[in-house]
Amino acid sequence: MHTETLAPQFNETESPLARLYLRKDAHGKTYIDGQQFLAGERLRSDFERAHLSQRLTSSYSESAGSGGRHWQMSDNAIANLSDNAIAARQRLHHAFAAVGPELSGILYQVCCIAGGFEQAERILALPPRSGKAILSLALTRLARHYGLIKIYQPRKTDSIAHWATDDYRPAISPAASPPAHQL
Q: Could you tell me the pLDDT band of residue 65, with boundaries at 50, 70 and 90?
């Protein structure tokens, strides 16, 4: 008897983010890189763990007249969430705050609710065919927030503020000898 272990299947066409990561442009490069893809998937995962998506099917766990589902309609619905869902909501809030209000809308549309680019452009009133570029910027900022991309830290010598001090003297490097063909 032959037993096989079945692994879960991943539908690559289901997620607009996965399609961008797997599809290549005319130069053979993907539209988003690995860090951007991981950042978008992390955001989607937190969104799902936060229980913020709308339910697509009916829940028959308790009858409608028993009052057991009243909490879902009340203002105190967050009191019945698990600690993991609350923590996921906080991570989601911090991620959107780090990205900023200008770019968080496209992340919500594409990563969280898996809407297409045309739909996101229409809802967010973006210029046509600008969704990929704006999403790429948003994913880069999100990857930086998650620590997937290093934040540039200027060296002390990169600053031009030292030119304003009284005792600053620029260092003049010795001139390189001209190439032999110019002699």
A: very low
